Amino acid sequence: MTLPTHLLNTHLPLGDQRTGRFYGKDILSVSQFSRDDLEYIFGVAEAMRTMVAHIGTFDLLKGKILANLFYEPSTRTSSSFLAAMERLGGSVIPINEVRYSSVTKGESLTDTVRTLECYADVIVLRHPETGSAAIAANAARKPIINAGDGIGEHPTQALLDLFTIREELGSIDGLTVTMLGDLKYGRTVHSLAKLLALYRVKVNYVSPEILRMPPELVAQLRKRGLPQTEHTTLDAVLPETDVLYVTRVQKERFENMEEYESVKGSYIITAETMKRAKPNFVLMHPLPRVGEISPEVDDDPRAAYFRQMEYGLYVRMALLAMVLGKA
Amino acid sequence: MTLPTHLLNTHLPLGDQRTGRFYGKDILSVSQFSRDDLEYIFGVAEAMRTMVAHIGTFDLLKGKILANLFYEPSTRTSSSFLAAMERLGGSVIPINEVRYSSVTKGESLTDTVRTLECYADVIVLRHPETGSAAIAANAARKPIINAGDGIGEHPTQALLDLFTIREELGSIDGLTVTMLGDLKYGRTVHSLAKLLALYRVKVNYVSPEILRMPPELVAQLRKRGLPQTEHTTLDAVLPETDVLYVTRVQKERFENMEEYESVKGSYIITAETMKRAKPNFVLMHPLPRVGEISPEVDDDPRAAYFRQMEYGLYVRMALLAMVLGKA
Amino acid sequence: MTLPTHLLNTHLPLGDQRTGRFYGKDILSVSQFSRDDLEYIFGVAEAMRTMVAHIGTFDLLKGKILANLFYEPSTRTSSSFLAAMERLGGSVIPINEVRYSSVTKGESLTDTVRTLECYADVIVLRHPETGSAAIAANAARKPIINAGDGIGEHPTQALLDLFTIREELGSIDGLTVTMLGDLKYGRTVHSLAKLLALYRVKVNYVSPEILRMPPELVAQLRKRGLPQTEHTTLDAVLPETDVLYVTRVQKERFENMEEYESVKGSYIITAETMKRAKPNFVLMHPLPRVGEISPEVDDDPRAAYFRQMEYGLYVRMALLAMVLGKA
User: Fold this and answer.
1) In chain C, what percentage of residues exceed pLDDT 70?
2) ipTM rounded to 2 decimals
3) Are C102 and B75 spatial neighbours (Cβ–Cβ below 8 Å)?
């Protein structure tokens, strides 16, 4: 085959600066970000939002390939990364069936990752074991984006949560954020709390006794000077709340079913709840929901959980562009 | 990130009229179409056929994203929509594993659809429950295309069946269409019959006694003035048949195995059947087949079932382009 | 719809010669290739390597669609073909769930293939039954590429193995190739041996007694005049070896666990093994590995197994371009 050298020009990357503070970097944990980093990411995400609103899709990552490596199923997250890559003009290798594939023949995560980076330019990894994203990143030359590793981290969820607050309310400093539900096991509220620690906000925790926010996290935010309060019902803090972040209270967490029955009603958001909330308040949920928010609330303009999904698209577009040096 | 405004021009949609009678509409049921609608759809499908014959693929839907949401597996239908979108230059989010994903965590269909429309421009939905496509369409702002909802509807199958007849025989009026096999439970023959009711055709039904066409459907066609006959064997009507539409007779439908054994041979198409059929007759089957048509028939030019698959591609390309305002 | 005829020009294939000796051909077996064919394929693969190094992705197959039909899971091979098609600007219909789809409703392989070729331009097939690729090729008008059919053939693996040797060591003639491990059941070593028979190489076989290279293959190479030796341990042949091709010795192959325990250590490559090997020696493995090569070896520049994966990308890009007439 004669080398079609004229092609060498057709794909010269658009504005190929290959720079930016996250070029070639891994996205592993919310702890890696400074406040300045967050502002940078959100600036890019906002540009993505504008571009999508105007033209839907554009070829910023044309010719780039994402390996979407999901060791456990997550339609929502994998679809979001897939759409993000496609809206940037890139391609995706979707791997959702690790169960049945070479990995179950006993191959190590690092071998799988080192193989996939032969084919792809960036790897998004979802894995059930805490710390697996860091292990993968250590083995790989190409950037790894952690899309959730067990009870460990899910940094892109936390980034999209914070971006949602910023887009919905204009800024983050000065707000009162109330977290509701299972604050003990909820990975999303832990990560969000860590990011909020970089801002000047008040944080309220509302949960059943047995599902309280872990003390070490509360201590971490206290050290940063954030006012925090803890409650078992929403009533007292609802009127002052700017952002209500709802998570699911799973029946299985309770040993005592009577206790579960007695508390569960307090953690369901209804039209009645909305009446007592601020007019410009924002209701969030990482989804999927299973009863925590009544569907009657969906049409309230303050219900932001579906917009939250959309903000996730922009944040993931931003991260992909950034680690590939195109933002 | 500085907004790369020069990109704003590169993706201005080709011939972006964003009009057409199906722009932004859902495709839920064959009942929604007038004869005029059908002619419009078939005109677009024919243009698609010409384009594919000449250039294979083209960028009419470049930048558009289809969420291909399959709650039950159907390689044939999902591949057909996927190929349709790719031949139009668009991208696809394939979701084939709903079993293992957030949906099985208990998320409602409407929440799933409202999430996916944050990422995609159009949603193709296959779901085991009758009426689910309408529920999804009600929740979604983006167009929903029903790719089969239980024993309910599978409108794109019926459209491709009718398009096949039109392309193979030039027109539909004046033909004699014979439906063979399981006419009681066969979703495809019900939908096809409803569409044929808009034309001037004669319809013959050939089935075992216990698998006759439902009386309400026969009544519906009678009201429209279509001549219809019912038979238990093909012999009498084969000579006059222009289109023979074969469906599978499933053993499981019979309580009495002797009855099954006594009839099953009558519903298998062989080279012998073809000898007694018209020279320009068309043999159709929705596929997959499991013995209803002998493979020896495949090379007969009147065997249209593989071409039928191909016509399905053009019809689905047409529908995608139409609901996205590009046809 | 008015036919957007200006589009007819936008997709005129780049350098659309539609020629080349493999245009429209199936890739079914290593036995179909002459030495001259191999040189031709490797020349194209090398051009692909250069293109990927310079620009990552290019639009040689823009508008072409690959159906990636996997009846059994193989993340590695399916991802490799998917990436190959995407790096050439083409699209993919990924079918990884044949278990749950129309095929399990009893559809024949030939019907599935004849359906898919209505949507796609080329089909890559992985199937558990020996000979299935030939059956598919016989039914299909479009090119079939065999991605492994049972214990039969896996020609693209053998091609990438040989391409790896050529790229790593410059040429193949004159080398000493040692195959280690399960030589009785290992499909990859059988196919590689058949290709090596076209060159002037020495081949050493190292395996447990019960897993020796099949006599008919040894005879085949002897007929071509290749010197061959057989051993149960690596020690004697390691110093002269240019290429060491390691495969897994599966515990399950042994009836006698004592025998397994006594041999298994001899078939594990460690840093110690590397010390006794030539300075420009090449260590290969088809992957996945499960203990046969110690991870401590990975950073040795002579460990070529991850580069081997990358060469597979170029070989598969070459084959796709060739059968579609674009190389």
Assistant:
1) 91
2) 0.90
3) yes
Alpha carbon distances (Å) from C246 to A111, C183, C209, C219: 16, 10, 16, 22
pLDDT digits (tens, 9 = 90+) for B57-102: 999 999 999 999 999 888 899 999 999 999 999 999 999 866 545 5
CA diameter of chain C: 76
When scoring B2, B97, B111, B125 by the number of chain A Cβ atoms within 10 A, the one with the most, hence best to mutate, is B111
How many Å is the Cα radius of gyration of chain A?
A: 21
For residue C83, the chain A residues in CB contact (below 8 A) are 65, 93, 119-120
Q: Which residues of B touch A94 (CB under 8 A)?
A: 94
| Residue scoring higher pLDDT (A151 or A180) | A180
Chain C: closest CA distance from residue B67 (Å): 14
Note whether A79 contacts B107, CB cutoff 8 Å: no
Residues C127 and C150 sit within 8 Å (Cβ to Cβ):
yes
Of B21, B76, B99, B200, catalytic = B76
Phi, psi of A265 (to 5 degrees): -60, -30
Q: What does the alpha-carbon distance between residue B322 and residue B319 come to, in Å, rounded to a whole number?
A: 5
Q: Cα A243 vs. chain centroid, distance in angstroms?
A: 17
For C283, list phi and psi in degrees, rounded to 5.
-100, 120
Q: Which long-range contacts (C-beta less than 8 Å, at least 24 apart) are formed by B210-213?
A: B210/B184, B210/B253, B210/B254, B210/B259, B211/B181, B211/B182, B211/B183, B211/B184, B211/B185, B211/B249, B211/B253, B212/B183, B212/B184, B213/B179, B213/B183, B213/B184, B213/B189
In the set B49, B154, B285, B326, the catalytic residue is B154
Handedness of CA B56, B70, B160, C24 (dihedral sign): positive
Burial class (CB in 10 A: 0-12, 13-18, 19+), B232: middle
Active site residue B105: yes
CA distance A54 to chain B (A): 7
Give the pLDDT means over successive 10-residue stretches in chain C (327 positions): 36 45 95 97 97 93 96 91 97 79 69 96 95 97 96 93 98 98 92 97 96 96 98 96 94 82 85 97 94 95 98 98 94
Q: Looking at beta carbons, which residues of chain A come within 8 Å of C295?
A: 108, 110
State the Cα–Cα distance between residues B308 and B282, nearest whole angstrom: 11
When CB atoms are compared, the residue of B93, B105, B107 closest to A79 is B93
Known catalytic residue: C126?
yes
Q: Which helix (H) or strand (E) holds A40?
A: helix A35-55
Distance CA C312, CA C81 (A): 9
Best mutation target, A42, A79, A188, to test chain B (most B CBs within 10 A) = A79
Half-sphere exposure in the Cβ direction for C302 (13 Å, CA): 21
Q: Which residues pair with B65 in a beta bridge?
A: B91
The lowest-confidence range among A117-126, A139-148, A288-297 is A288-297
| Pairwise CA distance, residues A65 & A116, whole Å | 10
Give the per-residue pLDDT at B266.
78
Closest CA to C69 of C135, C116, C139, C118: C116
pLDDT in tens, A189-248: 999 999 999 999 999 999 999 999 999 999 999 999 999 999 999 999 999 999 999 998
Annotation marks residue C224 as catalytic: no
Q: What percent of chain A is predicted at pLDDT more than 70?
A: 91
Contacts of C118 in chain B (CB under 8 A): 306-307, 309-310, 312-313
C170: left (phi over 0), alpha (psi -120 to 50) or beta: left
| Element at A148 (helix H, strand E) | strand A144-149
Rounded distance between C-alpha atoms, residue A234 and residue C59, angstroms: 57
pLDDT above 70 (res A289): yes
SS3 at position C152: coil
